[in-house]
Amino acid sequence: MQQERLHDPIDVAAICGNGQLTPRHFRWQGTTYHVETVNQRWSGKNGGISLYYFAVSAAGQAFKLAFNSKDLTWSLEERYDPAPAHPRGDGRQ
């Protein structure tokens, strides 16, 4: 699985209910992704700013989204592509 570290701003459609925020769709690089599953949620702080993280599955890939509660902005932090790093899977080309 290949990991790509990003920090790209994204647009997110999310719902609030039962005391939690849940991303449903996000738009990145002109493509809208439907969140199939929220696999994990956690929070952290950067200075005094609360950040809320979501590990989600969409379009056969895994993504890490972050919500900045001060600026009310979303970012795509990481993308995990299930394709092997090398076509043979053993590091040789």
Please provide a written account of the structure.
The chain is mainly β and 93 residues long. The chain has one domain. It is built from no helices and seven strands. A seven-stranded antiparallel sheet has the order 3-2-1-7-6-5-4, with no helix packed on it. β4 and β5 (49-58) form a beta hairpin. The chain is globular and about 40 Å long. The model has no long low-confidence stretch (mean pLDDT 90).
How would you summarize the topology of this molecule?
Blueprint (H helix, E strand, L loop, with lengths): L1 E16 L2 E9 L2 E4 L2 E10 L2 E10 L2 E8 L4 E9 L12
Antiparallel strand pairs: 1-2, 1-7, 2-3, 4-5, 5-6, 6-7
List keywords for this structure.
7-stranded antiparallel β-sheet, 0% helix, mainly beta, 7 strands, 93 residues
